[in-house]
């Protein structure tokens, strides 16, 4: 795998939320940054369309390569490559930092896939209660995306990784736990369990939300939250956390890490001075370090 640390200017940040906040408007598109991609046709078992962008490995766009129309789709060669699926959190959509991430990882030889949950971006309409932390259906969305990614000729089926932060972190770990196609996961700002994170969110919420305003669907598999599945989780896992994260503090990642089997390929990386999201999101706080550590992890180094 080629390693490089190119920089895309103008990275935009997604909203940092305490509960579900769907964003339907895209602030930019991949072609505006000169990136090649194609839209995958992803439909969930219950009939929802999930807007999904597949970026093949490609050279870093030259200055001025951005345009309004989609660029002609092409690949560097006929090789099947490792593929990183990046999911969203509980707010914003994939037109924020995911586009910048896609540009960096594809320039380093990986395919990248991003998608929007139902109710977000251009995915199918789905009514969501802003008091809910997540929806069980998000796991169905994730599974449908992975199934379609496996059908792509550009993908090495044995080298699929998932990445998520905050809400996307525990959804990624649950997905990796139950999906044989996923080789490993990269998680940032990971809630250990709802029992741990809800009191913490109440404690730090600026508007004084209570536990009655931070809800979990009754049918959500809460028993598969990270700390509960960690003892049986045997896939490679990288936990990233900011030292100043007040929503999913360091102790939550430490709790998950300690519960993982001693024999597991597990890593934890603490970004000093970084927080949970926004400008404090570890990827934004130290992009070169994030890229170096995540690329080495996926390369098995």
Description:
With 301 residues, the chain is of the alpha/beta class. The protein has one domain (21-299): Alpha/Beta hydrolase fold, catalytic domain (Rossmann fold, 3-Layer(aba) Sandwich), CATH 3.40.50. Helices cover 26% and strands 17% of the residues. An eight-stranded mixed beta sheet has the order 2-3-6-4-7-8-9-10, with helices on both faces. A two-stranded parallel sheet has the order 1-5. Helix 6 links the parallel strand 9 (237-242) and strand 10 (266-271). Helix 2 (137-149) packs across helix 3 (167-178). The N and C termini lie close together (11 Å). Mean pLDDT is 93; it is low at 1-15.
**Order of helix and strand elements from N to C terminus:** EEEEEHEHEHEHHEHEHH
- The counted number of beta strands is 10
Content of β-strand: 15-25%
How far apart, in Å, are the first and last alpha carbons? 11 Å
Q: What fraction, in percent, of the residue positions are helical?
A: 25-40%
* CATH hierarchy, class: Alpha Beta
Mean of residue pLDDT values: 93
What would you say the CATH architecture is? 3-Layer(aba) Sandwich
Report low-confidence residues grouped into runs of 5 or more. 1-15
CATH superfamily: Alpha/Beta hydrolase fold, catalytic domain
* Radius of gyration (Å): 18 Å
Derived from helix and strand composition plus strand pairing, the structural class reads alpha/beta
Overall morphology:
globular
The CATH topology is given as Rossmann fold
């Amino acid at each position: 795998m080629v390693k490089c640390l190119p920089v895309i200017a103008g990275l935009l940040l997604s909203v940092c939320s305490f509960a579900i906040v769907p964003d339907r408007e895209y602030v930019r598109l991949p072609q505006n940054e000169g990136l090649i991609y194609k839209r995958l046709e992803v439909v969930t078992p219950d009939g929802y369309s999930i807007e999904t962008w597949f970026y093949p490995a490609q050279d870093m766009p030259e200055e001025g390569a951005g345009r309004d129309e989609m660029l002609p789709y092409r690949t560097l060669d006929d090789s099947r490559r490792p593929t990183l699926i990046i999911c969203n959190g509980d707010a914003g959509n994939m037109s924020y930092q995911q586009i910048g991430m896609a540009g960096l990882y594809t320039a380093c030889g990986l395919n990248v896939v991003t998608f929007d949950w139902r109710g977000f971006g251009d995915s199918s309409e789905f009514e969501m209660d802003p008091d809910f932390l997540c929806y069980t259906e998000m796991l169905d969305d994730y599974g449908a995306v992975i199934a379609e990614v496996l059908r792509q000729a550009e993908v090495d089926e044995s080298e699929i990784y998932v990445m998520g932060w905050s809400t996307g972190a525990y959804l990624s770990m649950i997905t990796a736990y139950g999906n044989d196609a996923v080789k490993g996961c990269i998680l940032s700002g990971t809630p250990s369990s709802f029992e741990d994170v809800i009191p913490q969110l109440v404690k730090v919420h600026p508007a004084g939300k209570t536990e009655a305003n931070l809800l979990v669907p009754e049918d959500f598999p809460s028993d598969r939250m990270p700390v509960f599945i960690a003892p049986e989780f045997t896939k490679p896992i990288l936990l990233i956390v900011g030292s100043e994260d007040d929503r999913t503090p360091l102790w939550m990642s430490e709790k998950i890490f300690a519960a993982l089997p001693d024999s597991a390929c597990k890593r934890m990386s603490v970004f000093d001075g970084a927080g949970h999201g926004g400008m404090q999101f570890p990827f934004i706080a130290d992009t070169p370090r994030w890229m170096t550590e995540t690329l080495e992890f996926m390369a098995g180094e």
